[in-house]
Amino acid sequence: MKGRGFLKRRIVDPIVRLLRQGISPEKVSLGLACGIMIGVFPVVGVTTVLCTIVAIIFRLNLPAIQLVNYLVYPLQFALLIPFFHFGDWLFGVEPLPFSAQELVALFKADFWGAVRQLWDTTLRAIAAWSLVCLPAVAALYFAFTPLLRRLKFSRAST
Description:
Blueprint: H1 2-20, H2 25-39, H3 47-58, H4 62-71, H5 73-90, H6 100-109, H7 111-156
Helix pairs in contact: 1-7, 2-3, 2-4, 2-7, 3-4, 5-7, 6-7
């Protein structure tokens, strides 16, 4: 159960501390949902800045939103190709014939050349992400809020 201890220490305990500090389950929920969705934004290297902006605008806990952003970092890479394909499909464009490994090799060989080659694809992926973002944030928010309310009250009684 070593993994369970890690999850409890790194995820559950910080969330419980936020709830004990008086941050509402709704605010924590919104921070988690935004951190997840911004964390999978299909442009590598900008999610920290985007999370900071969203945390300031909505007065969310910055360390919490950044923690979630960093935790979903592997998911960002896993969803790059699907967002690229979804964006290409939305705009009726033939998808680029790259696998994830070929994409990594392309960036390693010539980073700026890869950026230029993928610029339009990336813009279409951002459009695709934009369509998914708000409904996903809402779904995550409504899923997390009752769980966090229970967590707050169950931890308060112990």
